[in-house]
Amino acid sequence: MDTYLPEIFGSLVFNDKVMKERLSAEIYNALQQTIKEGTPLTIDIANAIASAMKDWALENGATHYTHWFQPMTGITAEKHDSFLDVNKQGEVIMKFGGKALIKGEPDASSFPSGGLRATFEARGYTAWDPSSYAFIKDGSLCIPTAFCSYGGEILDKKTPLLRSMEALNKQSLRILRLFGNTKTTKVNATVGAEQEYFLIDKKIGEKRLDIIHCGRTLFGAKPPKGQEMEDHYFGAIKPRVSTFMKELDDMLWRLGVLAKTKHNEAAPAQHELAPLFTTVNLATDQNQLTMELMKSIAQKHGMICMLHEKPFEAVNGSGKHNNWSLSTDNGINLLEPGETPYENAQFLLFLTAVIKAVDEYQDLLRLSAASAGNDHRLGANEAPPAIVSIFLGDELTDILEAVQHHATYKGKKKSTMQIGVSMLPSFPRDTTDRNRTSPLAFTGNKFEFRMLGSSFSIACTNYIMNVIVAEALSQFADVLENTDDFHKSLNELIAKTYKKHKRIIYNGNSYSQEWVDEAQRRGLSNLISTVDAVPHYTDEKNVKLLEKHGVLSKNEIYSRTEILLDIYSKTINIEALTMLDMAKKQVLPSVLAYERKLVEMALNKKRLDESIDRSVEIDLINRLSALAKNLYASIDKLESDTLSTSKGNSSLEIARFYREKVFFDMKALRDDCDKLENLVDKNDWPFPTYADLLYSIK
Ligand code: ADP
Ligand code: MG
Q1: Is 517 exposed, middle or buried (0-12, 13-18, 19+ CB in 10 A)?
Q2: pLDDT for 430 beyond 90
Q3: Ligand in nearest proximity to the CA of 277
């Protein structure tokens, strides 16, 4: 892999450079128009593009093509066809036409549809998304596509994201025009998604059914050494991990992913990869690719890459930080304070739009990060909390306070400035003020959303961010387009909006109980679990918002709610069944076997000489018996709840049952097992312990 980076970067991507080289000017321009304006391609043009793509793919070693899409399962789906065909003369040829490029018809019945697709109608179709480049992965030309039911309702995560980008662009442009900007023709959300993950040895990990079936451990006593020494974070990377990281980077670069930073994370065996930011739809595709490659490359190196939010209890879980900002096509970051008061007024308006948006739609943002896996982080023992709030930092907060009170702002440099939007100070961007506990932190020129779980697609969070900000901007534009005194109205609008929504700003420690109490006093929502959060999808205000901006139809929102709840219940069901299997067939028999050894030992001692002390054996037998009895009862309880046939009549009732009953049964059973693990001889314990797993990579 001693390759020169710029040479390999994007070499497996059918990107703009390749298109320019391989398409005629006429075809290239037609495609650009489709990408920019959504004009449909004629079949002749599609044929020409398909043919160029095929030739390029064959030259680069591909034999197959696949429509690559992002169904509601959260992972990507693909069905491979080879280019192979036979012509009239019976000769083998390589063929790929425009029709196959534009539309595919996978059997949709195996993907979640939340009731949108009647079961007899198995067809669905995938439609090429020309705004995302095709690429070659593992010998297949992958064509990014949207996925719809035959009736046209969308069944994927990508389409609402593309629709939200339209909405955000439209409303942002309205604002920019008000500030006299006539040059910008497009505003995009930009995103950089920092990805956390764990690596463990495959041979050791595969000895545990929970890791195989659930991607996380369901049992495990605390290891003697966890992360308390803080010696892993940014520590030297072990050679085996480093080899993996190098191969991952190399592959990502070839696929045009801007992999930038890699380091060890806080927990043992935990690592992170951060890319450079890019346009949100590409960032979404690229994050999916990153997760997929992490898993497959780890396998190649005899390791398991765990992307679960909480693979190990009492050890830090894994999240995904979604850095989000707004950028114009001429490269201006709209969330960057500028040099002039005028730029800063515009900056403050966009900033207040985010504040208003997040306050009004806390529930949507919260549910975009809701899953059975992430419930172990948000609102549980680990942060960030389930309460959505914004960290702004002291300086910006002071400035907005001054705007609200039409007061004088005393800057850090002791300079005093009169705040009026038409004469805002040019304030310095302060990046030293880092707060790592906030769910949504303003970090100088972007917002960092920290609630996402490591295994999530970033699509949902971003279409929510895009649409809620688009809505706030549209309301702002409605006011500002109809005023005679722009500066006065702007000033008032920022002051009024800030005053109304500043309850969402919290600059303190979001992990503290103090904040939970304070947030309650402020009336912020605290949606502890997935079953508390997800039903808000269908709240009237949310349906109205998503429909208004054409992001999701009412039907699509209802189907998504069903799917999320259903996935939640299924996840816990699989975990419960796996737990039962392990507890009944592995833990209990091992405990009994160990007890038998102790009993034999005690009896042998007695037989040898009655006076030999047997108190340790007898005490251990007593303690083990008592714990085994609890374990036995916990197994029974979990089993009867999990197998109950009367969990509820709707997906919400069923999900609640899993949350309120099965989830707690699992906790109880785990508790019994972990206590037993601490008493049983390690050689008699049926699967690798936390210490074995967390330090499995030497
Ligand atoms: P850290 O948060 O670890 O201090 P940075 O602030 O440099 O690191 O960046 C974290 C992530 O934020 C990176 O993926 C980076 O590309 C991304 N990022 C930086 N600027 C922007 C932006 N304007 N829009 C979206 N993401 C951004
Ligand atoms: Mg960060």
Answers
A1: exposed
A2: no
A3: 1
Dump pLDDT digits (tens) for 327-375: 999 999 999 987 777 778 899 999 999 999 999 999 999 999 999 999 9
Q: How far apart are CA 494 and CA 226, in angstroms?
A: 47
Probe target for ligand 1 pocket from 190, 262, 286, 323, with the most ligand atoms within 8 Å of CB: 323
Choosing from 278, 335, 446 the residue with most ligand 1 atoms within 8 A of its CB, the one to mutate for a pocket test is 446
Task: Give pLDDT, residue 118.
Answer: 53
For residue 539, the Cα-to-chain-centroid distance in whole angstroms is 23
At residue 664, the pLDDT reads 96
Comparison of pLDDT for 177 and 232, the residue scoring more: 177
317 CA → ligand 1 middle, Å: 21
- H or E element: which one contains 571? helix 554-582
Burial, 95: exposed, middle or buried (Cβ in 10 Å; 0-12, 13-18, 19+)?
middle
Classify the C-alpha dihedral 615-618-622-627 as positive or negative: positive
Mean pLDDT across the chain, nearest whole number? 91
Q: 568-694 has which fold?
A: Four Helix Bundle (Hemerythrin (Met), subunit A) (1.20.120)
Poorest-pLDDT segment among 112-116, 261-265, 658-662 = 112-116
CA 454 to ligand 2 center in whole angstroms: 14
Closest ligand 1 atom to residue 324 Cα is: 25
CA-angle at 247, arms to 241 and 250, nearest 5°: 140
Length of the chain: 698
Query: pLDDT tens across 373-384, in order?
Result: 999 998 776 667
Q: Is 93 helix (H, G, I), strand (E, B) or coil?
A: strand
For residue 192, give the ligand 1 atom closest to its CA.
Answer: 14
- What's the token pair of residue 242? 């480093």
Question: Hunting for tokens 């793919």 — which residue is that?
Answer: 57
Residue 369 CA to residue 193 CA, distance in Å, equals 14
* Residue 323 Cα to ligand 1 middle (Å): 6
Residue nearest to atom 25 of ligand 1 (CA): 191
| CB environment 216-225: b (16+ within 10 A), e (fewer) | bbbbbbbbee
- CATH 3.30.590.10 maps onto the chain at 164-205+234-417+426-538
Question: Considering only the top CATH level, what class is 164-205+234-417+426-538?
Answer: alpha beta
**Protein residue closest via CA to atom 19 of ligand 1:** 277
Helices (H) and strands (E) in the chain, counts: 24, 20
- The per-residue pLDDT for 103 is 84
CATH architecture of residue range(s) 4-156: Roll (3.10)
Ligand 1 pocket, CB under 6 A: 190-192, 194, 274-277, 323-325, 333, 443, 445-446
CB 392 within 8 A of CB 509: no
DSSP annotation string for 105-155: --BGGGS--TTSS-TT--BEEEEE-TTS-EEEETTEEEEEEEEEETTS-B-
- pLDDT tens figures, 501-529: 999 999 998 888 899 999 999 999 999 99
Q: Counting atoms of ligand 1 from 1, which one is nearest the CA of 193?
A: 14
Distances (CA, A) of 468 to 364, 441, 492: 9, 17, 21
pLDDT score of 417: 47
pTM for the whole thing? 0.94
Nearest CA to ligand 1 atom 4: 443
Token pair of 65 as six digits = 């093509």
pLDDT over 90 at 38, yes or no: no
> Shortest CA distance to 409 belongs to which of 425, 433, 391, 421?
425
Are the CB atoms for 512 and 434 separated by under 8 Å? no
Q: From CA 515, how far away is CA 366, in angstroms rounded?
A: 17
pLDDT bracket for residue 213 (50, 70, 90): very high
Which residue's alpha carbon is at the smallest distance from atom 6 of ligand 1?
443
Q: Residue 422: count other Cβ atoms within 10 Å of its Cβ.
A: 12
